[in-house]
Amino acid sequence: MTERIHTYCAQCFAGCGVVAHIDNGRFVRVTPDREHPNGGICSKTQAAPQLVYDPNRLKVPLKRTRPKGDPDPGWQRISWDEALDTIAARLNAIKAEHGPEAVAFYRPSVAGSAASDYWPWWTRLANAFGSPNRVSATHICNWHRDSGSSYT
Q1: Total domain count, the chain
Q2: Looking at 44, 59, 68, 95, which residue is catalytic?
Q3: Is 44 a catalytic residue?
Q4: Model pLDDT for residues 121-131, shown as the tens digit of each residue
Q5: In this structure, is residue 88 part of a structural domain?
Q6: Are the beta carbons of 130 and 95 closer than 8 angstroms?
């Protein structure tokens, strides 16, 4: 028997109401919650089960070992510490050569995920780095609300 859980989509800021269908403990399908004001879902939401179970889903840091353009990038698994150290070193090298304004801090659309509250600390990181450049994304089905709200 399939269990139906009323919840919301966390793939963008709209938070559309959905019904998650769980079959034997596995997320198998998502459908719109018709009682939610939006009453529909987009293709990203429809693809949620495939995103969750995709065998190629990236779950660990990987480092390219061959030059860009090589048909085989030679991905090698590295530790989270090495990944963060590599990122910090590259950011500091850019800052040293071109100044902090050469780096923009990008905010993807991750509402409802574990990272949905990160914008304040991301802003603090950008400020500490010295960059005034912060870029934000929205989503295809709600950009008009985001844009309109910025003008009122």
Answers
A1: 1
A2: 44
A3: yes
A4: 888 999 999 99
A5: yes
A6: yes
